[in-house]
Structure formats: C-alpha cells, structure tokens
Amino acid sequence: MNWQKCREFQKKIRDNLVLKGGDFDYRNLLAVDISFKNNKAFVAAVIYNIKSNCVEKKYTLIKKNKIKYVPTFLAFREVPYILRIVNKIQRNYDIILCDGHGIMHPYRAGLATHLGYLLNMPSVGVAKSYLCGNFDKPGSDYFSHENVYDDTGNLLGYALTNRKNTKPVFVSPGYKISFEKSLKLIKLVSGKYKVPEPIHVADKITKKLRDNND
DNA sequence: GCGACAG
DNA sequence: ATCTTGTCGC
C-alpha cells in the first residue's frame, strides 16, 4: 500500500465533502461489517427497514485478505470488500451505515465518508471507540449526547450514550447527510445494544461466518 | 522527540 | 480486528 497516495485521496475527499441532505423519508438502510481471520475477510451486508425496524435481507461474502490495518487508513482495508458485496445487491436502500467513523477523522475521511463518496450516496458512521476530537463526557442516560469538535471548533459529530452504563459510541455524518439527520437516524435504529441494531446484526453474521469457516 | 491511533 | 476469563450492572 502506498500510504502517501492514500492520504492524498483522503484530502481529496475532505475537499469535496457534502454534509447536506438526508431527507427523512428513508425506507431501507444498508449496514455493512467485516470480520477477519487467517488472511480472510468475512463480509456481511444487511438490508434493514427503518420504518418497521426489521431485517429484510442478509448477504455474505468471503474473500482472501492481504491488506493490513493502519490507523486512520481503515477504509483502505475494508472498502474493497464492501464494494464487492454492494455490487451483488439490488440498490433498494437509501443510505449506508458503517461500523467506523464518518467525518470524525483527522482528514474528515473515515470509512463511512470514504464509502459514501465512492458510491455517491448518503452514509453515516458509528464507531465504538475514539479516534479524534474534543468532547465532554455524555451523561449515562439513554440517548444522552455531547458534541465532538475539532481543534478549531468545527463540529465533527456526537458522542452518544446508546446504552446505559456503557462507553458512548461516536456518530458522525458520512456523506450527503447533515449532522442532525445522522443523529436522528442512529436513534431510530438504535436497538438494545451499544451499537445500532443493523450493525449488531451484520457483526453477528460475520462472526458466525468466521467461526464456521475453520 | 512523544503520544495517539476507527477496525 | 483477534485472543480470552472472569466479572459487574441491569
């Protein structure tokens, strides 16, 4: 991997961000996640109905993996597999939900943003842990949240308590959606675990795939 | 030089 | 992410 070139691409994404849109008549969402083991990538995509909070369809894919994880370059490891599985799926969804940051990234080019940019469609990122930004610790109540800012005071997203007595998750717009709509959407598909229901489902699928493979 | 660093 | 036991809170 040429990380210099990758960084340049992230800067290109940053300079072409679209943080507007996200009309709220969404019907379906696509959640994607990947597990890794023995140089293999176990990929899952879930079509989730936002209105009824139901999983409509599940897709899986297993591919060889040679790409290593390097901090701030997660998208370059995961996007190739996500694109492969996305190309197998009928485009009957309005937005993509990723297990990773959106613009809450040193170059505003986290996984969700990177993917939304390439597919030219709305996306939102939800990460389980911190990457960058300044914020006050949110309260322990369900849906309690605090803004996350960069060093110059620009809003990056939110630290959201999505489950009581648990570390917050980090919500940020990916592409073609506003901050407010991003947060609203995540609350809508919150579910009962730390990560939003669609991601939780996708994660379980990838781990089952992984464990049934060896 | 030092520390931080999604999955 | 993966590896892995006990343990705390609802």
Automatic annotation (TrEMBL):
Keywords: Cytoplasm, DNA damage, DNA repair, Endonuclease, Hydrolase, Magnesium, Metal-binding, Nuclease
Catalytic reactions on record: Endonucleolytic cleavage at apurinic or apyrimidinic sites to products with a 5'-phosphate
Compartments where located: Cytoplasm
Sites where the protein binds Mg(2+): 33, 99
Annotated site location: Interaction with target DNA: 69
Top-level division of the source organism's lineage: Bacteria
One cellular component (GO) term of this entry: cytoplasm
GO biological process: DNA repair
Gene Ontology terms for molecular function: deoxyribonuclease V activity; magnesium ion binding; RNA endonuclease activity producing 5'-phosphomonoesters, hydrolytic mechanism; single-stranded RNA binding
EC number in record: 3.1.21.7
InterPro entries given in the database record: Endonuclease-V
Pfam families registered for this protein in UniProt: Endonuclease_5 (PF04493)
Names of required cofactors: Mg(2+)
Function, in words: DNA repair enzyme involved in the repair of deaminated bases. Selectively cleaves double-stranded DNA at the second phosphodiester bond 3' to a deoxyinosine leaving behind the intact lesion on the nicked DNA.
Family to which this protein belongs: Belongs to the endonuclease V family.
Protein's name in the database: Endonuclease V
Source organism (scientific name): Candidatus Mcinerneyibacterium aminivorans
